[in-house]
Amino acid sequence: MSSTQPGMWLNLFQAAQSTSLPLRAQLCTALREAIRSGAVPYPARLPASRTLAADLGISRVTVEAAYGQLEAEGYLTRRVGQGSFVAARFARPVEAEQPLRGSQLAALSQRGHQLVRGGGCRDPRTPLAFAAGSPDLRAFPHDTWRQLCNQRLRRDAATLAAYGDPQGYAPLRAAIAAYLQQARDVRAGAEQVLVLTSSQQALHLLGSLLLDEGDVVWLEEPGYRGARTALAAAGARLVAVPVDGEGMCPGDDLPPPRLIYLTPSHQYPSGCALSLTRRLALLEIARKHGSWIIEDDYDSEFHYDGRPLPAMQGLDRHERVIYLGTFSKALFPSLRLAYAVLPPALVEPACTVRTIYDGHGSQLMQAVTADFIARGHFAAHLRYMRQLYRSRRALLIEELDAKLPHLLRVQPSPGGLQLLVELPPGSEAHLTRQAQALGVATPSLRSLYLAEPGRDGWLLGFAALSAEEIRLGVRQLQVLRI
Ligand SMILES: Cc1ncc(COP(=O)(O)O)c(C=O)c1O
């Protein structure tokens, strides 16, 4: 039995390919990077040399030579009759906070110390079953994208190579505003759109701009770690507000918030929608206390059972809501494009802070994205991907229900790129360790709780996986024991 996904090895190998190096050296580079980055975590077993050679279309002798070299370098431990394993020196805690050693501690500020201890929020670098949040990049229309890039470079290379507008490339801002008005009922003109590199950058920027040390921020419990880390970095006092079937449910005894972070159309991770009653109640709280609301609409493009509820921003009559969207899932993550729709009073201050960060995003990529939207490719791509992801989600549910009913219970949800499953109380850490040893990623539900001990579960990413990879991943999990 191979301990990891064939598609993943091919991707890693292709990423390291270079015509100037022999195949053995290319394979060594790919394996070192996979082990160092944690894409193949300790104590995963690597595929048998025969299997890997067949998957990659290279000779077994080459794979044997690469494994031998990596053993000598200390990356692998090889055991006769058992196989090749990631060496113990690459062990790292599961989703754990990173402890600091004395010398590192001394070199950092208090803020730096706190940031690093939070563990950051890394995304998976390769589509590994069942890493959460990756879109399928194999299904992206790369040829169309290349043509649009070439056209832009032929026409506007010099202009696009210059410094750009910190607020974002104007035609892209106009295309985003038009899309959001039509698809999400957001009330926005291009002049309110700020183009950024990611929602993560938006959260960090808004934290710096809007929060003072100790300001109260309400967060959904459980909720998105990216928001938690970014707002904690700004010195916020985080208050975990429970989520029920209608979304965030604040009690009367909470300290008034300076900022509320919400995922209203598809709560992360539970998948529920924030009900209209709650939306109106939270907007009223924001009006009363002069609080800001961040509406993170991170995956509204991927709802499979009808349209999601319109954005909360469209209900806001007091200019309290800041709407966030990203192209990381709808197009591809390394594009590094996301956007905020700001209340008019925040546009100028936010653009100024953007100049302190990184000035502006890549003009070429913004121009190509604007063309991709304006020529109808974006709408067509979303239609296609919705269908693809819908069928993958159905397959994963079917496989889990059929093969792992003793282990987990699927939580239905109308959309998203990952599926929430509940595990028996107290079993998450133990089952996660077993899955990790097989090279299967099972993102933790418990780690998404700020204050409570939390429920046991996994958030299984399916969107980037072919039907065969989904079946293989579930088959691998069948050996897990509670
Ligand atoms: C709730 C939520 N917001 C934002 C993002 C990511 O957006 P970006 O890649 O633009 O930072 C994610 C990614 O998984 C997410 O789950």
From TrEMBL:
Keywords from the named record: Aminotransferase, DNA-binding, Pyridoxal phosphate, Transcription, Transcription regulation, Transferase
Molecular function as annotated in GO: DNA binding; DNA-binding transcription factor activity; pyridoxal phosphate binding; transaminase activity
Source taxon at top rank: Bacteria
Pfam families reported for this sequence: Aminotran_1_2 (PF00155), GntR (PF00392)
RNA-binding found in the keyword field: no
HTH gntR-type domain boundaries: 21-89
Family: In the C-terminal section; belongs to the class-I pyridoxal-phosphate-dependent aminotransferase family.
UniProt-listed PANTHER family: HTH-TYPE TRANSCRIPTIONAL REGULATORY PROTEIN GABR (PTHR46577)
Name this polypeptide is given: Putative 8-amino-7-oxononanoate synthase
